[in-house]
Specification:
By secondary structure, the protein is of the alpha/beta class. The chain contains eleven helices and nine strands. The radius of gyration is 21 Å and the shape is elongated.
Length: about 280
């Protein structure tokens, strides 16, 4: 295996850079991804190529998305990787992943995601889930706990609902801080996200699901009666099997989808709904 030389690059705080260096962890992640030669595969934030290198040895071609110009240049100049990589020097949060894949040829995505953009980046990817086969990400352990959380737990929240609406969530492994340079102050974890080809529950308008969970979890100690007051009646809550005196964390994804469809039938402006989530 030909590793990129890691000297000469200082991790940049504004990019949230923590470079993976533990070879056992790297091997475990590559095994979890299990790349095949013909995979349509994309890495977000290759950094110093800790994962790029072993994955590129197993595939014919690898797309990488790197915002840091210096790191992108290092990849271009690497003699072992240059022929395998197609480098997209851009912000993953703004990248249109449908330019790389389709329903017929879906993409596989992996990466050690910067902690400061991990949640908005996953939300961005969910909006393009129809062209994604699977995703393997290194995240903060607490974020993985939230992704996988079930109702009736303190970790269950907006991110749990929207993630599990789109994907199966499979935690893979925990990663201690010393596996990185510089070492972060938190424990990390690797998760596999597999978008559903047929979702267990569908909503008529995904924006309404986002809005109803934002309202519900805005002040999670409130009862759902108070959180949704003025938008959804107690009678409508009861019709979906929800006790109006329960709290947001006790409501299932199926029930949130039902509430989203109720909200969709009403002529409530997005501006009013957005303002209510910010109050």
């Amino acid at each position: 295996m030909h590793d990129l030389v890691t000297q000469g690059h200082t991790a940049r705080k504004r990019f949230g850079q923590n470079f993976l260096q533990d070879q056992n962890v790297i091997a475990g992640i590559v095994k979890a991804i299990n790349p095949s030669a013909d995979d349509n595969i994309v890495e977000i934030g290759p950094g110093l190529a800790a994962l790029t290198t072993p994955v590129s040895e197993k595939v014919n071609k690898l797309h990488v998305i790197e915002l840091d110009r210096d790191l992108a240049q290092r990849l271009r100049e690497n003699p072992f990787l240059a022929t395998k990589l197609e480098i997209h020097e851009t912000d993953a949060l703004k990248f249109d992943f449908s330019t790389l894949g389709s329903k017929e040829n879906p993409i596989r995505i992996f990466g050690n995601l910067p902690y400061n953009i991990s949640t908005p980046l996953m939300i961005h990817l969910f909006s393009q889930a129809n062209v994604i086969k699977d995703m393997h990400f290194m995240l903060q352990k607490e974020v993985v706990n939230r992704l996988a959380a079930a109702p009736d737990s303190k970790d269950y929240g907006r991110l749990s609902v929207i993630t599990q609406y789109y994907c199966r969530v499979i935690p893979i492994m925990e990663v201690k801080p010393h596996a990185f340079r510089p070492a972060p102050k938190v424990t990390s974890a690797v998760v596999r996200l597999v978008p559903y080809t047929q979702k267990p529950y569908e909503v008529k308008n995904i924006r309404k699901l986002e809005q109803v969970i934002a309202l519900a979890f805005n002040q999670r100690r409130k009862t759902i009666h108070n959180s949704l007051r003025g938008f959804i009646t107690d009678e409508e809550l009861t019709a979906t099997g929800i006790d109006p005196q329960t709290r947001a964390e006790n409501i299932s994804i199926r029930q949130y989808c039902m509430l989203a469809d109720i909200l969709n039938e009403k002529s409530i402006s997005d501006e009013l709904l957005t303002a209510s989530t910010q109050s």
